[in-house]
Amino acid sequence: MALMKINFPRLQNTIETLAAIGRSDADHGLYRMAFSENDLQARDWLKSQIEAAGLEYFQDEAANIHARLNWDGKRASVMTGSHLDTVPGAGHLDGALGVLAGLECLRCLKEQGVDLKLPLESVAFTDEEGRFGGMLGSQAMSGRLTPELIHNAKDLDGHMLSEVMTHLGMPPLNILRARRQPESIHAFVELHIEQGPVLEQQRMCIGVVDAIAGLVRWNIRLLGEANHAGTTPMNMRKDPLQGFAEVAAALARILEENGSPRSTATIGYVNCFPGAANVVPGRVEFSLDMRDTDMQVLDDLAQAFRKSISAIARRRDLMFEYDEVSRLQAAACDSGIVDCIGKVCREFGYHSMQMHSGAAHDSMMMAGITRTAMIFVPSMAGRSHSPAEWTPWEEIEKGSNVLLNTLYRLASEAA
Amino acid sequence: MALMKINFPRLQNTIETLAAIGRSDADHGLYRMAFSENDLQARDWLKSQIEAAGLEYFQDEAANIHARLNWDGKRASVMTGSHLDTVPGAGHLDGALGVLAGLECLRCLKEQGVDLKLPLESVAFTDEEGRFGGMLGSQAMSGRLTPELIHNAKDLDGHMLSEVMTHLGMPPLNILRARRQPESIHAFVELHIEQGPVLEQQRMCIGVVDAIAGLVRWNIRLLGEANHAGTTPMNMRKDPLQGFAEVAAALARILEENGSPRSTATIGYVNCFPGAANVVPGRVEFSLDMRDTDMQVLDDLAQAFRKSISAIARRRDLMFEYDEVSRLQAAACDSGIVDCIGKVCREFGYHSMQMHSGAAHDSMMMAGITRTAMIFVPSMAGRSHSPAEWTPWEEIEKGSNVLLNTLYRLASEAA
Question: Which residue blocks in A224-366 are alpha helix, DSSP H?
């Protein structure tokens, strides 16, 4: 099959234009949190781009914005997409790249008038970054939301999702209507920056994502006895910070013994109470974030941590409590699409490698209703969620070319 | 020598009366921070008690309150004392016991008209607990203060010591005049609650303190690289929290290898940044409090910690920085007074043991200018700096009897 190329100057121009919407003069970071003024401005701009390209504009009940090509409401579509919203102080590529490269792909396919068996859609999903919980639009589209989740969704400032949507003229419970039937989507492919250091270190242009890691996150408390640091001999202490140290120092061993090469375990937060230099702590609280692409491995890993922390607490006469605060199911990517992406890379002569995504993406939700895969481009120094986020333009061009040809081939398949 | 006994109901009454001054209805804790309204009220009450007992009242330029018996300004005095001020939310014995038992001893000696070769003083030292730095009155009396220290002393709310004293009609630099010449004090003995669990666990009534531990305290920072917890493989991390865990888990070993049986090492504070469950920390800050009664041991211990943390940081590619935020010299107690206290205990038939004090006390300062020792009574469950602070009344009576006879014997010695 012939290899097509995107119009790179046009893509670069749209990326630079969107990067100016919501940019702070103070830290040069982007502030396009979902449904903020900046997010709404970006949505309006995207709508104008879709219409100017002669594509069909559609916004569903979850405020996901679709650009559509050859849509007839009957045939399944080949879908791509990502998100316009950002974390506070974000870079210019996380989410935006997938939305704008998807739009560029549809433009190219339309301009070049190629024969397509299936319609195409490029989607900007609502609130991927989690002002109201994360992956809201793709959860809605894949049918994971419930009235209760919608009713309770609240941001850190206490604003309710339902109030924000009502204010924008969107009945909140109608979000449930954004659900798509699996047979209405032929495949989903998302282009995204890696947000990690692997591709750069391996000197690869393209990561072909074959799985998205699942996640289990605990808040853990170890309770002992607060005592005077001077008057309490070492052998009369019940020091939960010493228990924590033993847990944290065993983390690598527990991971190596019970995890897979793709497992990670991270303690990102720790605090002790009362937290004074001259007081043996009485309580330590910390987080434990565990990830793997295989839920069985992940559950085994969590079980191993639970046993280890229990044993340490028992020996040290501490109380051990934990809450599971997050659980995300791992998602396997479709081997057919993974093969297709790999083949396109080889035909272009782009160095590519198969890898997993340790971060969650809209693709994780979409994998629940359709064949899904992701294309990663390198993140310099692994930096993301920061104004330092950067991918060289030539890598962006390569990733977008891979997306274009992958979508083209998927849309040329027999449905 | 005959054994005398204090008037226990009278002592109990004064302890209960003072315990009502500054007590919070909310948490039943005492709030008599130095120079607060409650502290001033306690000072007025103590003055009235001294005068009612027919003892001489004297307040020096550091606001230390003295009760004096047979004072003539020529002979060296036998001194006892402790402090009236408290930490916020304190118990009723820390400091107060030593002041009131001292006053009771002078009352007894006066009433019983015993022959004394030397005058006696019972002192309530100013700001032992550290609103303005700690052991302020005993530092003044032992000549450790400088105009600079006085000028810079500030509480947590930003109030300057110099302003507070000026407001009370006391020229701040006159604090320096509270310095006593070593030859003006024959000996100093302080009765105090242990504030630790040792006496109770050993079923002892009296602790005879033979040394007060010195202290070195560091604030330590380990600097690595903040990264995404999902996308950064374990082997590409520079995680300072893992470095911290290794340090904290090595604490017991380092202490056992380099310390003495009296050494303690405590991490009472730890925090990591940015401190989010899904981010590998980029910076960890923690405190390290090291104590021993032998400064050479303490310095060796600190050196061992420095080498261990350096090695761990080097291997993990972290930066290691620390500040020494406190250093207190250890103080040896006078063996003659220690022997005298032990002898009194044996004569009474009270179970006693020699021990060190892991906490700092006014005695630590007084040891710099005169022969010093301390008498400890048990703290139930080691609790202190809390409304749960408690010593059974019979133990208080025994400790006060030991103080009385020790002071009597010291004041009967040839000067």
Answer: 240-258, 295-315, 335-348, 362-366
